[in-house]
Specification:
This protein is of the alpha+beta class. The protein has a single domain, classed as Aminopeptidase. It contains five helices and four strands, in the order H-H-E-E-E-H-E-H-H. A four-stranded mixed sheet has the order 1-2-3-4. The longest helix is centred in the middle third of the chain and has 15 residues. It starts with a helix and ends with a helix.
Amino acid sequence: MPLMLAFIRELAEYEKEPQAVVATEEDLLRDGFGQSPRYFCLVADWEGTPAGFAFYFHTYSTWLGRWGLYLEDLYVTPRLRGRGIGRALLVELARIAVREKCGRMNWQVLDWNAPALEFYRGLGAKMLPDWETFRLAGEALERLARDG
């Protein structure tokens, strides 16, 4: 758990939102390793050193009538980038998705992250044109739940 949380914090730092990480080791342990895991995580190793991770969970496509795989976070520590680690993590995720008969893999990328955009496009991933991400959180989420 300490390693996962450290990677999550490094990613938040890279994405310019270090203050947004409020998850604890206890949260990650509870939600990933109980009877019904809410997420899964792959950890990459480079010559005995933890190099990065892919944090994912399952979704469901009503249109496809199949499970999907949602990649929440993909992160490779900066000093080990450019060695194929991110690609290896995505290859393993693709293998999991195919083995589990998932219809697709989805993820998001920040519009300013040019290296990631280029990397994903190079793998054959397509950016969805007409879709915008919405988020309901915090007080707005609580207000909707309370007041309908």
